[in-house]
Specification:
The protein is α+β, with helices and mostly antiparallel strands. Helix content is 14%, strand content 26%. Strands 5, 6, 7, 8, 9, 10, 11, 12, 13, 14 and 15 form an 11-stranded mixed β-sheet that branches. A two-stranded antiparallel ribbon has the order 1-4. Strand 2 and strand 3 form a beta hairpin.
Length: 333
């Protein structure tokens, strides 16, 4: 197996540089000509400026504006960052050892860079604030969902922990607040076929072989609202939100189900009332049984009027460096 080339550029703001391989059958006279053809989102003038500033590099350092095309070679550069609205809530560290980092993610913070969310993501914040440049996610949690997310500190352990999630060997528990319908028998298991079409924000339930399964339990109810425990056995896009909406009890604060609603980038009120409460699994390295639980709670359950406030998850503190871990519950059965 060929060893991956080490980037000559360091991370910037917790982000790795882009690495591009120059095609072996390339016909371009210069690297600049190739980049203009290959990256149409970057204006030629911007590429020219990056070359002049020494921001596009090869294995031997910055490339000159007229650097000749080298088939099979590599170049690295940092993307221009999008304008982002800071997410004003902190990440809390639940557990950290020499292999794993478990954090409590607030609402509105994406797990990993994607689209217009790059620096304002859990991965980039943690790499930067905890000085963990090799940190990688073991799984992902939707941007609008709060709760537990697990990261891997050492690259050689990444595959083992990611495989746990891929093979559905992690027991996941969620909590949600939604309308209480006395006509819905609980507990119940929902199985359906969920399809997410490219370019469409909301996923759909369609006829066909089920590809998703969720057990739904009613924990308690009052004042027309229910607090539900959700136990997914699969991980389709928006699965929990789709299944509760399909039952006629969409989760409070949902901007997609049953109706897509626009939300301003700086609107942090009325967050989705969905919380990743627990992760439990047999550690693939140590063989121990491990369980991690969130310290967050959904504030709408205790204060219905508070759902319009930015801190509708009671642990949504003001943004700062990730806090040190407190006593996390772990089972070693």
């Amino acid at each position: 197996m060929r060893r991956k080339l080490r980037s000559p550029l360091p991370q910037r703001h917790g982000l790795d540089p882009v690495r591009l391989r120059l095609p072996t059958d390339g016909h371009w006279a210069t690297v600049r000509d190739h980049l203009v053809d290959r990256i149409p989102k970057l204006a030629p003038e911007r590429i020219d400026a990056m070359l002049r500033e020494g921001r596009i590099v090869g294995v031997d350092g910055p490339l000159a504006p007229d650097a000749p095309y080298a088939p099979g070679g590599f170049v690295w550069f940092h993307r221009d960052l999008p304008d982002e609205t800071p997410v004003p809530f902190a990440l809390d560290v639940v557990h950290r050892d020499d292999g794993l980092l478990v954090v409590d993610k607030p609402h509105f913070l994406a797990t990993t860079p994607r689209g217009g969310h790059v620096v304002e993501t859990a991965l980039v914040r943690l790499r930067r604030d905890l000085d963990l440049p090799q940190l990688s996610p073991a799984h992902r949690l939707d941007r609008l969902t709060a709760g537990l997310v697990m990261f891997v500190l050492r690259p050689e352990l990444r595959g083992a922990y990611q495989t746990l999630f891929h093979d559905r060997l992690v027991h996941k528990e969620y909590e949600a607040v939604a309308r209480f319908d006395p006509g819905l028998a609980m507990p119940r298991t929902v199985r359906s076929r969920i399809v997410k079409h490219r370019g469409v924000l909301a996923a759909q339930e369609e006829h066909g072989e089920p590809n998703s399964e969720t057990r739904i339990e009613l924990i308690e109810h009052r004042d027309g609202l229910g607090r539900y425990r959700l136990l997914p056995r699969t991980g389709r896009t928006h699965q929990l939100r789709v299944h509760l909406n399909g039952l006629g009890i969409p989760i409070l604060g949902d901007d997609l189900y049953p109706v897509v609603r626009d939300r301003a980038a700086d609107d942090f009120t009325a967050p989705l009332q969905l919380l990743a409460r627990a992760l439990e699994f047999t550690d693939p390295i140590s063989g121990r049984r491990r369980r991690f639980e969130t310290r967050r709670s959904l504030a709408t359950w205790s204060d219905v009027d508070g759902h319009s406030a930015p801190a509708a998850c009671t642990a949504n503190r003001a943004a700062s460096s990730p806090s040190a871990p407190g006593p996390a519950r772990e089972d070693y059965r």
